[in-house]
Automatic annotation (TrEMBL):
InterPro entries, alphabetized: HATPase_C_sf (IPR036890), Hsp90_fam (IPR001404)
Gene Ontology molecular-function annotations: ATP binding
Residue ranges of coiled coil: none
Keyword Cell membrane: no
Keyword field contains ATP-binding: yes
Similarity comment: family membership: Belongs to the heat shock protein 90 family.
UniProt name for this protein: ATP-binding protein
Keyword terms: ATP-binding, Chaperone, Nucleotide-binding
């Protein structure tokens, strides 16, 4: 039985096991042995070159990789006996905190030394000679022989004629093999930019030009600014560049910290991925910093320091980079605010939104109607100053049409962020613009207060809506409308109430026509209805409803019966047309099937039947182009000139006109189609074309899309274009007393041009319910 009392217990450790644990905690890869010793070699070279004023490029680091041994050789400053004993072989003490080391810009300062090497090797041998020594020091140790506080490391002093430098040789632990390929791949990320040659088994893996690499990253960028910047403790010279995709590149040089120059620079590219940290061009670790621009690139600064394990940067180093990045982003935002990049760069918009820098959004654009332009927010206040201005945040087409007119501008806020939030803040805080009101004030003018011209205007308006649009229940009047609104449409139980602002330019032009040129008044009125009224009443036109569609189809069917076109005449073209447009059928299938349709009709066009729109319908060309017809691809009414008779079959236009949607040629459909299907084309419809080889097929559809009319033209000569094509076009049908003209796109004009003689082609047509 042990007697009561006190005694001491000896403190002891299993040295080899502690070394393995220590090294595995500090270095997470066996290859880190190479990085540690190559970094030490580079530091030694830097110190020798500083001490002896030698060019770094003439020094050398050689690495030999064998299955069982690694060797790192340098011709650097070498180690004195004191450094070898107290720094290399003693963990926790660094020999790189001297004044020479600091001036040289060495990388490592932690003093882990040889100890960590034993995580991957079983024996270590070091041969070194200092630049001021005549002796070569050879020391070695085996992992299994190491004991704490015991003399277990061999040291030999050899007098020989040998160049300064150090050789580290390690016998590898079989559990941690390293081959040449893996060694090169791993080391390259750290030594690629070193000016000193780093050679692995005869293969150079360093001396990649840092400036050349940056120049490659900057390819396609154009510098737009260079200025001195400062923020808190930091200052430097910032160069800002942009490329064709509106990405930003920022390079910061001549950096100072509290007035002291910092060696190195930062190089950031927008969406550039990871930011890599370097010190004196030696790779350290990725820098975990981020900002609004997604900047990534290279940071090579002598204020960066690795952690003990070299796998990360110190907290202080990361904070330095984060502060520099914040300074760069702030200045970049100031620079590009005055450039077109501001409108295209979402990261810039997000940055100024997040930092409350709304005035910097002056270059961000916003849509303005009715001009349908995009203007900078900074120009909103001065844009057409004599007109009322409002902004609208929604998508309601009725509101867009109501508040955007010749009398008032409507700024349409984007639906996508961050642009939307910026636009809203700028319009409300900077321009102090009002949003569209919830209610428009309409004060209708009584008939007793109208002029004769205005009264005739309303009478003709109602008759056109009745005759051409089948709308009997319409109450049209002039009115005083608030907020610069030109047209206000409201459906009541009794009628569709249409209010027109008195004195708007479009009305004034028509009234003047009634007074000065009454013979073209009717045409001008029909154009007014088509261009200005129809967009507001589209949803109320009977053809837009099922009831109206059924009525139209009934009338078309009656026309077919009159001319004895039987249902058996229908082929498969209706389904094939749908399949072709959906990419499910070939164009040749459509053409082949169409041959089985109703009897082919020949169409002749002579040179004498080619005229011009200017001669046949001068009032169309003379009409004011300030309010063009909507270029939307949805159903639109035709241009009505039923009081004009024309003998022409092809019409051309000398110049493009907005009222004709910039078409320069129009083709008359066959007389038979006018008689049988002309009623269809007097209603609002869409226009679609497909073409290829010898064929051009027009497909017209009513407002609901439920009824289609096709017009198939077979040419004797093939089209000049080799490509089969198809597209929607803005409806620009012209209806006259005896003819109906349809537009010819520019690519198809050569097929219908007649220089002499005449042209003959075949046509087929039918409706598709």
């Amino acid at each position: 039985m042990t007697e009561p009392g006190k005694e001491k217990i000896a403190f002891d450790v299993e040295t080899s096991r502690i070394l393995q644990i220590l090294s595995s905690e500090i270095y997470d890869s066996p290859k880190a042995f190479l990085r540690e010793n190559v970094q030490n070699a580079y530091d030694a070279i830097l110190m020798r070159c500083t001490a002896q004023d030698l060019p770094v490029e003439e020094r050398r680091i050689e690495i030999t990789v064998k299955p069982d041994r690694l060797t790192v050789r340098d011709d650097g400053i070498g180690m004195t006996e004191d450094v070898l004993k107290n720094n290399f072989w003693k963990a926790g003490s660094s020999g790189k905190k001297s004044e020479l080391a600091q001036r040289s810009g060495v990388i490592g300062t932690f003093g882990i030394g040889a100890m960590a090497n034993f995580g991957v090797c079983t024996a270590l041998r070091v041969e070194t000679r200092h630049i001021e020594s005549e002796l070569t020091l050879v020391s070695s140790a085996k992992r299994d022989d190491l004991k704490i506080a015991q003399d277990c490391i061999d040291l030999e002093r050899i007098a020989e004629d040998r160049e300064p430098g150090t050789i580290v040789m390690a016998d590898l632990d079989p559990a941690n093999p390293i081959d040449e390929s893996a060694a090169c791949e791993y080391l390259s990320q750290y030594v690629r930019f070193l000016p000193v040659p780093v050679i692995v088994n005869g293969r150079l893996i360093s001396q990649e030009g840092f400036e050349d690499t940056l120049a490659g990253k900057a390819k396609g960028f154009e510098q737009i600014s260079s200025c001195v910047v400062s923020r808190g403790e930091y200052a430097g010279t910032l160069q800002v560049s942009v490329n064709g995709q509106n990405r930003v590149l920022a390079r910061l040089t001549d950096i100072e910290l509290n007035g002291t120059a910092i060696k190195g620079e930062t190089f950031f590219v927008q969406d550039g991925g990871t930011t890599h940290g370097f010190r004196n061009l030696f790779g350290l670790a990725p820098v975990p910093v981020s900002g609004h621009y997604g900047f990534g690139g290279f940071v090579n600064l002598d204020i960066l320091h690795p952690t003990a394990g070299r796998e990360a940067l110190s907290r202080e180093s990361i904070q330095h980079v984060a502060n520099l990045l914040a300074m760069v982003e702030a200045e970049v935002s100031q620079v590009i605010a005055d450039t077109p990049v501001a409108d295209a760069n979402q990261q810039f918009q997000q940055y100024i939104l997040s930092h409350g820098l709304t005035p910097l959004a002056k270059g961000v654009k916003i849509s303005v109607r009715p001009a349908d332009d995009m203007i900078a927010l900074g120009s909103v206040a001065t844009y057409e100053p004599d007109k009322p201005k409002h902004y609208y945040t929604g998508q309601d087409a009725t509101i867009l049409k109501r508040f955007a007119s010749d009398q008032a501008n409507l700024f349409h806020v984007s639906q996508a962020n961050p642009r939307r939030k910026l636009q809203l803040r700028y319009l409300s805080q900077i321009v102090k613009l009002e949003q569209v009101p919830e209610r428009t004030i309409v004060e209708r003018i009584s008939a007793t207060q109208l002029t004769i011209e205005e009264a005739m205007f309303l009478v003709r308006l109602r008759s056109i809506l009745l005759d051409d649009y089948l709308m009997p229940d319409v109450d049209a009047a002039f009115a005083t409308i608030s907020h610069g609104v030109s047209f206000h449409v409201e459906k009541t139980d009794r009628a569709l109430q249409i209010s027109i602002a008195r004195g708007i330019p479009a009305v004034s032009m028509v009234l003047e026509c009634y007074t000065a040129a009454r013979d073209v008044f009717d045409g001008f009125m029909k154009d007014f209805v088509r261009e200005h009224i129809y967009p507001h009443i589209r949803d109320y036109v009977p053809s837009s409803t099922k009831q109206g569609r059924d009525a139209l189809y009934k009338r078309l069917k009656e026309n077919k019966e009159l001319f004895r076109i039987e249902e058996s005449d229908y082929g498969a073209i209706e389904s094939l047309l749908a399949d072709y447009l959906a990419g499910k059928a070939e164009f040749s299938d459509v053409i082949r099937t169409s041959r089985s349709r109703a009897a082919v009709q020949r169409q002749h066009v002579s040179r004498a039947q080619v005229g011009s729109v200017e001669d046949e319908f001068p009032d169309i060309i003379q009409a004011n182009d300030s309010a063009p017809p909507p270029n939307e691809l949805e159903a639109a009414p035709p241009i009505m000139r039923e009081d004009v008779e024309s003998d022409m079959k092809v019409l051309t236009v000398s110049a493009e006109h907005q009222k004709l949607n910039n078409f320069k040629m129009f083709l008359a459909i066959s007389d038979r189609m006018v008689k049988r299907e002309g009623e269809f084309l007097r209603w609002p419809h869409t226009t679609k074309l497909i073409w290829g080889a010898h064929r051009v097929i027009y497909i017209f559809a009513d407002t609901t899309g439920s009824i289609s009319l096709y017009y198939d033209i077979e040419l004797k000569s093939p089209l000049e274009t080799d490509q089969t094509g198809g597209a929607m076009f803005p409806t620009t049908t012209i209806v006259t007393k005896n003819r109906i003209f349809i537009p010819v796109p520019g690519a198809l004009e050569p097929a219908f041009q007649i220089t002499d003689g005449d042209k003959e082609f075949y046509v087929r047509f039918d409706t598709i319910p």
